[in-house]
Amino acid sequence: MALASLAAASLPTAAAAVRSRVSLLRRAMAASPSSSSCAGLAGSPARVGVVQMTSVGDLDANYATCSRLTKEAASAGVKFLCFPEVFSFIGSKDGESIKIAEPLDGPIMQRYRSLAKESSMWLSLGGFQEKGPDDSHQYNTHVLIDDSGEIRSSYRKIHLFDVDVPGNMVYKESRFTTAGDTVVAVDSPFGRLGLTVCYDLRFPELYQCLRFKHQAQVLLVPSAFTKVTGEAHWEILLCARAIETQCYVIAAAQAGKHNEKRESYGDSIIIDPWGTVIARLPDRLSTGFAVADIDLSKVEAVRTKMPISEHRKFDSDWKTS
Q1: Catalytic residue list contains 82
Q2: Is 198 designated active site?
Q3: By CB neighbour count within 10 A (0-12 exposed, 13-18 middle, 19+ buried), where does 145 fall?
Q4: Which of 10, 105, 243, 315 is deepest in the core (most CB within 10 A)?
Q5: Do the bridges between strand 138-145 and strand 122-131 make them parallel or antiparallel, or are there none, so unpaired?
Q6: Of these residues, 85, 209, 227, 263, which one is catalytic?
Q7: In 3D, which of 219, 165, 179, 172 has the Cα closest to residue 7?
Q8: Closest by alpha carbon to 262, among 230, 238, 287?
Q9: Can you name the residues that pair with 194 across neighbouring β-strands?
Q10: Which member of 66, 79, 82, 157 is catalytic?
Q11: Strand duo 288-294 + 269-271: pairing
């Protein structure tokens, strides 16, 4: 591991909403084709980076930060750099993100595609404001760009953050965001990547789907956790997802105060398939990135020694009384 330069609250979810999400994911699992491809399995360890930053309501300022970090990461030998949710824009007023939302072929994303190409680096851009199905909604979209500047895949956040955080503020993401309905995994030189965004982290069935239906080896969790929820649950949830799926987890985080109304927890980290944190920044507020070499042979070793895929039981097989 190397370092480069450089969200205790109970959040109840309505049972009906949980059942709806589980049903959605089961349909996705049934409909999505399985893939046994394990890109990069036989290759050497890959150097990846996880960014921590404090995005603001200025597209140019955020791009300047992302560009600087990408170039610094390239100099450090990083081949895959992961940015947090809402990396390109965090507004201070309701509706601001709707105004700047664009299709994935728009000029904002084109700048980042050019950045990836110029830097010969894959980029994970989590939480882009993609233009939605109508003028009052957007998608919260995780975009994966390869080193030639092409969009390899995109994932629209399934679980929307509609909660009243104790001691904090009320968030209702669904007011201006439309939920996605498709589970996404994609092959890359760094393994088979499972794409998620922030609040998805609290729903383990999504990660089970990525691991056991889509054969993910690396889970990407770009986030902007609130300070209250991050202090309570951020690291423990990430470690749980790594352990129960036997995957690497790369979790890029927004950090600090974005404006007078919004603050994020920070703590960008990379976790190995045994649940060990192998990279993080020295504090939760710095803008910068941490670097780790991920070795897919470790994924296979953990899965061989602890073969949970062979031992899994399904609720359809269980008896109830």
Answers
A1: no
A2: yes
A3: buried
A4: 243
A5: antiparallel
A6: 85
A7: 165
A8: 230
A9: 185, 219
A10: 157
A11: unpaired
Do 184 and 195 meet the contact criterion of CB atoms below 8 Å apart?
yes
pTM score: 0.86
Nearest by Cα to 183 from 35, 32, 34:
32
172 noted as active-site residue: no
pLDDT (tens place) for every residue of the chain, 321 residues total: 444 433 333 333 434 444 454 455 444 444 443 333 344 444 689 999 999 999 999 999 999 999 999 999 999 999 999 999 999 999 988 789 999 999 999 999 999 999 999 999 999 999 999 999 999 999 999 999 999 999 999 999 999 999 887 766 788 899 999 999 999 999 999 999 999 999 999 999 999 999 999 999 999 999 999 999 999 999 999 999 999 999 999 999 999 999 988 999 999 999 999 999 999 999 999 999 999 999 999 999 999 999 999 999 887 778 887
Domain boundaries defined on the chain: 45-308
Residue 267, token pair as written in the block: 């703590």
> Which listed CATH number (3.30.1490.20, 3.80.10.10, 3.90.400.10, 3.60.110.10) goes with 45-308?
3.60.110.10
| Cα(194)–Cα(189) distance, integer angstroms | 13
Task: Classify strands 151-156 and 138-145 as parallel, antiparallel or unpaired.
Answer: antiparallel
Spatial separation of the C-alpha atoms in residues 267 and 278, rounded to whole Å: 13
DSSP of 24-86: HHHHHHHHSPP----TTTTS--EEEEEEEE---S-HHHHHHHHHHHHHHHHHTT-SEEEEPTT
Cα distance between residue 104 and residue 144, in whole Å: 11
- Answer yes or no: are the C-beta atoms of 140 and 197 closer than 8 Å: yes
Q: Which residue has the tokens 């889970």?
A: 219
Could you tell me how far CA 143 lies from the centroid of its own chain?
10
**Facing residues of 294 across strands?**
46
